[in-house]
Amino acid sequence: MNDTVVTLVGNAATGVDYRETPTGGVARFRFAVTPRRWDRRNSAWTDGSTSFYTVCAWRNLGANLTASVNVGDPLVVHGRLRVRDETLDGQRRTFVDIDAVSIGHDLTWGTSAFKRVARANTALTERPVDMSAAASAANAATAGNGSGSGSGSDAGPGAVGKPVHTQPWLSEQDESAAPVGAAGVPSGPL
């Protein structure tokens, strides 16, 4: 339980290699981290020595990583640090690996477009009955009854109002596709 958790900022040094294993798919790639420091003497940024890590991502993270990352992409990697020593050809070598928990593009250097992946197991994404009833009640309350509740709605009695966003990070088109309380998706306000 005494894992060392690190967050690294760098670039994908190799392509992502994805393989299926008995315990689930795994994606691996080499990750290059080069520190930059301000050199006061020369009044310029200088690069330090580059450190290389092998990043492993399991199951859904690995599959999504394979479809999203190319060589040279700037990334932020968060995960557990593992250091291992091996003897190869009579020489002792040290390897540093990261078991990734989360990986994303570093938006300091560009833009990225997120696309939610549809999962085959619908049991994980079905809306519970009690949450569905709460969302229906919220929709009915915002549809308005003409009582002038001060919500800015000029809808008359029986008019259908704009849908209530139970997930504020989704657009209106995506709202119907992503149920509230899906596994791995926050269901509360941001």
In short:
The protein has 190 residues and is an alpha+beta fold. The protein is built from three helices and eight strands.
Overall description:
The structure is a single chain. This protein has 190 residues and is α+β, with helices and mostly antiparallel strands. 15% of the residues lie in helices and 35% in strands. The chain is built from 3 helices and 8 strands; from the N terminus they run ββββββαββαα.
Task: Reconstruct the topology from this structure.
Elements: E1 4-12, E2 17-19, E3 26-33, E4 36-39, E5 44-47, E6 51-58, H1 59-68, E7 74-88, E8 91-105, H2 129-143, H3 172-175
Parallel strand pairs: 6-8
Antiparallel strand pairs: 1-3, 1-7, 2-3, 3-6, 4-5, 7-8
Overall residue-averaged pLDDT value = 76
Strand sequence of the main sheet, in spatial order? 1-3-6-8-7
H-E string: EEEEEEHEEHH
Q: What gap, in angstroms, lies between the N and C termini?
A: 30 Å
Would you report the number of β strands?
8
Give the CA-based shape: globular
Radius of gyration (CA) equals: 24 Å
Could you name the ranges where pLDDT drops below 50 across 5 or more consecutive residues? 145-185
Q: Count of helices?
A: 3
Structural class: alpha+beta
Largest sheet: 5 strands, mixed, barrel
